[in-house]
């Protein structure tokens, strides 16, 4: 009674609130948060920054609606909303710039964004609750379409909720085009085709990501006969040609034998064929000579070195975190497995479950390099699944579906590994022993509890399972059902041979970054799985294809193609390959401290071996697993170092080098020139080159030996700094 | 247009309320007519300058929200030399003639520069804008739900016979123990954030303001309910008010990061304490009135000497925003709590603080702490919706009050220590028996809409 009278007293004379209207309720979780995300309020540059902005902090892209609700309605004394006069809420005054807003004017009164926020405040600011309908999935239409440049297509995005309801959320979705030269998309989801090619437009709403593919064929129609008559060596070619037909891009013809041979040697083993090898290959008249060349190449020790180096990049073999003995053991383990062509699934399974002394079981060093479940979780998914999970460490992934819960569930799979150090406290201690333990969890930092160990999109382990967690994750990863595992390595290998992955960048296999030829990646991956994860067989199939053997020269209509494999893509050789080629052609090996003389760069166990040349040309540091670690971009220091740096000039001027030996041998300049061309470029000089060069050099036999040597050094320098030499083509 | 007009009102308001500000006279007619400050100059400044030179950011220490600000200047002195545009840094800046150059988002338009130049040349005269309320600048938006304003503050009259309840634009007073309502104290622009009763019971101070615009403090005559004075100067919400032991000083703090100490005899700010780097949520005088403690979002507690406004030291123990603090009556012990979920207690010395206790108190942020008048009991509330009672001497938890319907944001012991008043975000108020923790007055609701 007393209470009732109090209410009556307090409320006396004050107007009653307007009667509730019948407009549908606004959900904080499903309506307000998407508005804040769409308008950029909770972006990393604004209130989504860890420290917030001007005292107002939201979770990045709304990953924690409960926290955002508190921040908006209650924190800072509830200054951001006005319960009684909703229009006077800062939540509305700031973005409409009725009061000054550092972020500027984001929307106007009456706009859809304003209406959602205003209706929510006016309806009493209902809080997110456990009974809210939850977002389930996202659907974008059209899902795949072909258009001519200049045309505009509106996308429609629908979200499905756990209540069974679907809503058109186009206006609240965020859009991004993977390649804006092909298609652009505005914030209303209208796609404008800009040029020929194919790209993905990704759409995100709440935690959902959807994707559509936009295709615009090249403008000049290509006669059907071009595709019908295109050379096909195997199944790869059927799928490449089908794509080229769809895109109306004519393929270039096949490369000649010498070009093919040089290319295959460089791509598969990082070496140049010798003059004798090239000449023998050219003289071989058998129709299957390319296949036989590949069979032999894949058995060469240099092939083993090359791929050991590649996988050492991926697995971060480095003396940065390992002792000399451990580096040797880890490298040795990889080398042995490459030499034995261990199936990829078995290789990765062994790596994942490795235990024992790190100097005896080299694979165990993977757990010495990665000191925490966090580090492993991130590098492991990058290496073997092409997934960058890092963002989800601190918040739900802004571009992908991975949540922080997914992240810590996955990281927890690596929480039960222990290291017993045998040589002191640091990892540099000579050896350590890796063991699986029965206890230990990594906690979700926000929730403060351990997530059930769970592979990405996989089945969580039973809460009290005693099974080895590493065995569980390894089994899941390498299962034939996990096609992404196969796709990732197939794409890595493909990128090695074609200079660009079917998925680009080659370790970015997120859902919204599809392959330029999905059927091809699917088919190759399925074959790879069916064939027992045989890397050498995969490489043989790839190099046998007409697609790989195509000329690097363009044909009218395919000049702009850089991703559908209508021609071989020229590219600068990797740092290690160039340095080894310099050594090979000049006959002067590089000196790497601590390694025996004659060691090639591709044989280095560790990327910390001192070499200015390798550093300048972008050798990876092996700190994090990422395709971005190897720098392929040309730089000015590279050019300057090639022109007048010590690496090449020292080799050219060496007394035991090829130039000195040729001068001493008494051979003519013509001979020297021809030999140099064969060994460096795998071809003889053309008549024009020969005439022009010899006109300058004379026959050389009558000249002063010192002067002649200088001239020949200049000639060799010119050849070895040429684009033809430095590039794969 | 809406943007500019509202800010005109803001500039006018701040100027009006400023109790001690001397306004330059409005100049007479001149030929050609000089630009008018309110009509011509203010819109240009709002559009071009206020994003950075506002009270929340104060880039370069330069604030340009009022005419007074323009005259006073920032870190590098006054931006204007009246009558001499070519010697005024502000004019040189916007004409791109000054070094170092400030980093504006975009240059001003030539006509805008011309207006400012002419106005400075004419002596930079002030003119008062017609006050335009923010109410007129926002679209109509009907409240569609039954909601009550949050209760952010409760204050007992020192004799315990009345309880003041912060409401929307007004302060309610209830006679206690019965709870009968008296006429509300009215005249505030927005939600009342803070109430304090002077020690002799003659004055009720109410603080609040319009977020993002200005803060206000109104002193009411408790006997008549009439407004005695308005204390202007805060540039954003006032979060907390506290009287010293003898009622000669009132301390206020707010979102503008500033603490003001007012002389109650003159209504002047005798201290303007500006060292916090984020919102200041609470202030408290020591029992003897010699020290002032402040709690802020910058994760610090600062201790000030009241006599001269000098900061004695800063306590940086808290690991997140500090939302509340209170001196234990009769001692120099200070309790504080905040986002880091802990209640910390220090012995406050003249040059340093000694930690007495630091313990997790709530499952989430601590919102309020309050001591009983005898200093034996400490009460606390948290965003976990708990209200807890602690033995102030040992830190032992005595009891948890019955489940709260929402965040308890207001907390006040009756002067005799027998009752504890609790106000909540959902607008409800409860009175508990402090000894038993039982509710002695059923929850009642704060006022409903008080429009305009």
Task: Describe this protein with a few key phrases.
A: 729 residues; alpha+beta; 15 strands; disordered N terminus; B: 452 residues; Methylamine Dehydrogenase, Chain H; 2 domains; five-stranded antiparallel beta sheet; four-stranded antiparallel beta sheet; 5 helices; globular
Structure description:
The complex is a heterodimer of chains A (729) and B (452). Chain A is α+β, with helices and mostly antiparallel strands and 729 residues long. In chain A, 41% of the residues lie in helices and 9% in strands. Chain A is globular, with a radius of gyration of 31 Å. The N and C termini of chain A lie far apart (93 Å). In chain B, 12% of the residues lie in helices and 37% in strands. The chains are: A alpha+beta (729), B mainly beta (452). At the A-B interface, helix 1, helix 4, helix 5 and helix 6 of A face helix 1, strand 3, strand 4 and strand 29 of B.
Summarize the structure.
The complex is a heterodimer of chains A (729) and B (452). Chain A has 729 residues and is α+β, with helices and mostly antiparallel strands.
What count of domains describes the coordinates of chain B?
Answer: 2
Number of helices of chain A: 31
Please tell me how large the radius of gyration of chain A is: 31 Å
Backbone shape of chain B? globular
Helix content of chain A: 40-55%
Major sheet of chain B: 5 strands, antiparallel
CATH class of the largest domain in chain B: Mainly Beta
With strands numbered from the N-terminus, the spatial order across the biggest sheet of chain A is 2-10-9-6
In percent, how much strand structure appears in the residues of chain A? 5-15%
Number of strands of chain A: 15
Largest sheet of chain A: 4 strands, mixed
* Low-confidence runs of chain B: 1-30, 448-452
pLDDT averaged residue by residue of chain B: 85
Name the overall outline of chain A. globular
Oligomer: heterodimer
Poorly predicted regions of chain A are: 1-22
CATH architecture group name of the largest domain in chain B: 7 Propeller
Q: Name the pair of protein chains with the most residues at their interface, and give those residue counts.
A: A-B, 56 and 66 residues
């Amino acid at each position: 009674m007393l209470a009732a009278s109090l209410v009556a007293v307090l409320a006396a004379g004050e107007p009653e609130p307007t009667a509730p209207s019948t407009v549908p309720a606004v959900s904080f979780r499903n309506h307000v948060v998407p508005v804040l995300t769409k308008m950029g309020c909770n972006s990393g540059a604004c209130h989504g920054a860890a420290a917030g902005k001007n005292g107002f902090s939201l979770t990045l892209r709304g990953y924690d609606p409960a926290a955002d609700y508190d921040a908006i309605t209650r924190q800072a004394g509830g200054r951001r909303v006005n319960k009684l006069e909703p229009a006077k809420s800062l939540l509305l005054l700031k973005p409409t710039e009725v009061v000054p807003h550092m972020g500027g004017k984001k929307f106007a009164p009456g706009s859809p964004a304003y209406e959602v926020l205003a209706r929510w405040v006016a309806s009493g600011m209902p809080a997110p609750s456990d009974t809210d309908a939850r977002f389930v999935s996202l659907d974008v239409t059209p899902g795949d379409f072909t258009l001519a440049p200049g045309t505009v297509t509106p996308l429609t995005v629908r979200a499905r909720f756990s209540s069974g309801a679907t809503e058109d959320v186009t206006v609240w979705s965020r859009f991004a085009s993977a390649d804006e030269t092909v298609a652009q998309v505005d914030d209303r989801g209208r796609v404008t085709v800009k040029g020929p090619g194919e790209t993905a437009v990704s759409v995100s709403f709440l935690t959902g990501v959807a994707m559509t593919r936009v295709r615009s064929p090249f403008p000049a129609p290509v006669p059907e006969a071009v595709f019908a008559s295109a050379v096909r060596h195997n199944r790869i070619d059927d799928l490449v040609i089908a794509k080229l037909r769809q895109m109306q891009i004519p393929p270039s013809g096949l490369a000649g034998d010498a070009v093919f041979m040089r290319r295959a040697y460089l791509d598969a083993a990082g070496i140049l064929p010798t003059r004798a090898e090239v000449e023998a290959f050219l003289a071989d008249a058998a129709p299957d000579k390319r296949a036989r060349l590949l069979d032999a190449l894949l058995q060469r020790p240099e092939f083993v070195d090359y791929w050991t180096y590649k996988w050492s990049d991926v697995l971060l073999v480095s003396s940065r975190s390992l002792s000399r003995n451990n580096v040797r053991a880890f490298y040795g383990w990889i080398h042995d497995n490459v030499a034995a062509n261990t199936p990829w699934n078995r290789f990765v399974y062994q790596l994942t479950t490795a235990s024992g002394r790190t100097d005896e079981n080299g694979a165990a060093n993977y757990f010495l390099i990665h000191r925490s479940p966090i580090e492993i979780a991130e590098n492991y998914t990058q290496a073997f699944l092409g997934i960058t999970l890092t963002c989800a460490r601190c918040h739900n992934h802004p571009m992908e579906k991975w949540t922080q819960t997914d992240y810590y569930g996955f990281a927890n799979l690596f929480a039960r590994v222990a290291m017993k150090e045998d040589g002191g406290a640091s990892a540099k201690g000579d050896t350590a022993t890796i063991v699986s333990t029965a206890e230990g969890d990594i906690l979700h930092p926000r929730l403060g509890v351990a997530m059930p160990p769970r592979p990405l999109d996989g089945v969580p382990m039973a809460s009290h399972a005693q099974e080895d967690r590493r065995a569980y994750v390894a089994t899941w990863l390498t299962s034939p059902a996990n096609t992404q595992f196969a796709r990732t390595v197939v794409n890595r290998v493909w990128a090695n041979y074609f200079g660009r992955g079917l998925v680009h960048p080659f370790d970015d296999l997120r859902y919204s970054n599809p392959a330029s030829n999905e059927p091809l990646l699917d088919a190759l991956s399925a074959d790879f799985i069916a064939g027992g994860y045989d890397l050498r067989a995969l490489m043989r199939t790839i190099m046998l294809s007409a697609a790989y053997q195509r000329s690097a020269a363009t044909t009218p209509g395919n000049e702009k193609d850089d991703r559908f494999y209508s021609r071989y893509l020229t590219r600068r050789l990797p740092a290690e390959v160039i340095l080894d080629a310099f050594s090979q052609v000049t006959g002067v090996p590089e000196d790497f401290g601590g390694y025996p003389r004659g060691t090639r760069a591709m044989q280095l166990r560790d990327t910390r071996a001192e070499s200015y040349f390798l550093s300048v040309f972008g050798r990876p540091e092996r700190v994090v697993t990422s395709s971005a670690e190897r720098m392929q971009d040309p730089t000015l220091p590279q050019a300057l170092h090639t022109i007048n740096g010590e690496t090449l000039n020292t080799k050219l001027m060496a007394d035991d080098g090829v130039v000195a030996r040729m001068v001493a041998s008494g051979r003519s300049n013509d001979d020297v020139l021809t030999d140099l061309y064969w060994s460096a470029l795998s071809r003889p000089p053309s008549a024009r080159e020969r005439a022009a060069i010899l006109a300058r050099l004379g026959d050389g036999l009558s000249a002063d030996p010192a002067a002649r040597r200088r001239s020949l050094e200049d000639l060799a320098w010119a050849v070895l700094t040429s684009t033809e030499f430095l590039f794969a083509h | 247009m809406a943007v500019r007009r509202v800010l005109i009102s803001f500039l006018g308001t701040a100027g009006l309320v400023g109790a001690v500000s001397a306004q330059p006279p409005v100049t007479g007619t001149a030929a050609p007519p000089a630009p008018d400050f309110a009509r011509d100059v203010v819109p240009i400044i709002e559009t071009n300058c206020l994003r950075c030179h506002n009270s929340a950011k104060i880039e370069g220490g330069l604030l340009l929200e009022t005419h007074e600000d323009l005259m006073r200047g920032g870190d590098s002195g006054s931006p204007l030399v009246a009558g001499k545009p070519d010697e005024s840094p502000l004019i040189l800046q916007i004409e791109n003639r000054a070094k170092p150059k400030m980093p504006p988002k975009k240059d001003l338009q030539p006509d805008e520069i011309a207006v400012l130049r002419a106005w400075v040349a004419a002596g930079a005269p002030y003119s008062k804008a017609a006050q335009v309320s923010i109410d007129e600048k926002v679209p109509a938006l009907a409240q569609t739900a039954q909601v009550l304003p949050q209760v952010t503050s409760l204050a007992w009259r020192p004799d315990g016979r009345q309880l003041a309840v912060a409401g929307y634009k007004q302060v309610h007073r209830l006679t206690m123990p019965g709870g009968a309502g008296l006429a509300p104290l009215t005249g505030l622009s927005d939600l009342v954030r803070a109430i304090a009763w002077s020690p002799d019971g003659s004055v009720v101070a109410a603080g609040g303001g319009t977020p993002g615009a200005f803060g206000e403090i109104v002193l009411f005559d408790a006997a008549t309910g009439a407004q005695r004075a308005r204390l202007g100067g805060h540039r954003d919400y006032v979060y907390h008010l506290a009287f010293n032991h003898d009622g000669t000083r009132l301390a206020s703090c707010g979102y503008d990061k500033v603490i003001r100490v007012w002389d109650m005899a003159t209504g002047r700010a005798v201290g303007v304490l500006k060292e916090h780097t984020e919102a200041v949520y609470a202030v408290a005088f020591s029992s003897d009135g010699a020290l002032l403690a402040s709690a802020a979002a910058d994760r610090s507690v600062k201790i000030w000497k009241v006599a001269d406004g000098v900061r004695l030291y800063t306590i940086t123990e808290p690991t997140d925003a500090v939302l509340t603090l209170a001196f234990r009556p009769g001692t120099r012990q200070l309790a504080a709590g905040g986002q880091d979920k802990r209640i910390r207690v220090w012995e406050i010395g003249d040059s340093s603080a000694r930690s007495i206790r630091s313990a997790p108190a709530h499952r989430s942020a601590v919102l309020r702490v309050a001591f009983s008048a005898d200093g034996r009991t400490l009460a606390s509330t948290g965003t976990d919706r708990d209200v807890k009672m602690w033995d102030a001497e040992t830190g032992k938890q005595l009891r948890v009050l019955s489940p709260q319907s929402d965040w308890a944001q207001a907390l006040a012991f009756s002067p005799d220590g027998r009752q504890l008043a609790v106000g909540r975000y959902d607008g409800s108020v409860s009175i508990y028996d402090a000894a038993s923790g039982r509710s002695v007055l059923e929850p009642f609701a704060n006022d409903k809409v008080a429009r305009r």
